[in-house]
């Protein structure tokens, strides 16, 4: 089943510490049901000095959150997503409110 968000989408976080934050999707992991959102669910990692990072130090980065915690933003408001299948078999993501077309869904080619 295709995910309701894709890389590059503007999404709003609907639960957790970052509730209400609007940001961009960096990566979607559909098999794990996770999504990586820019600036959301930040974690800190302590790096020991190595060849790649001679200084070592503390870095902060995004950790993935569950797909159910985000909704796409359409016209400044969160929206659910519906899927429409055309007669030729092409799938399209459509906003539940207003019916705005979000994007076409592409997947592996069927032989």
Concise structural overview:
The chain has 111 residues and is mostly beta strands. Helices cover 0% and strands 47% of the residues. It has a domain at 10-78: SH3 type barrels.
Could you please describe the fold and organization of this structure?
The protein is mostly beta strands. It has a domain at 10-78: Roll (SH3 type barrels), CATH 2.30.30.30. It is built from no helices and eleven strands. It has strands at 10-13, 22-29, 34-37, 42-47, 57-62, 65-66, 70-74, 77-78, 81-85, 91-95, 101-105. It is elongated, with a radius of gyration of 17 Å.
Reading side by side through the largest sheet, how are the strands ordered? 6-3-2-1-7-8
* Rounded average pLDDT: 88
Please tally the helical runs, counting DSSP H or I stretches of 4 or more residues.
0
Describe the main β-sheet briefly: 6 strands, antiparallel
Per CATH, which architecture of the domain at 10-78? Roll
General shape: elongated
How would you classify the quaternary structure? single chain
Q: Uncertain spans, ≥5 residues at pLDDT below 50? A: none
Query: How far apart, in Å, are the first and last alpha carbons?
Result: 18 Å
Give the C-alpha Rg. Answer: 17 Å
Helix content: under 10%
- What amount of the residues lies in strands? over 45%
Total beta strands = 11
- CATH topology term of the domain at 10-78: SH3 type barrels
SSE-based structural type? mainly beta
CATH class of the domain at 10-78, named: Mainly Beta
SSE series: EEEEEEEEEEE
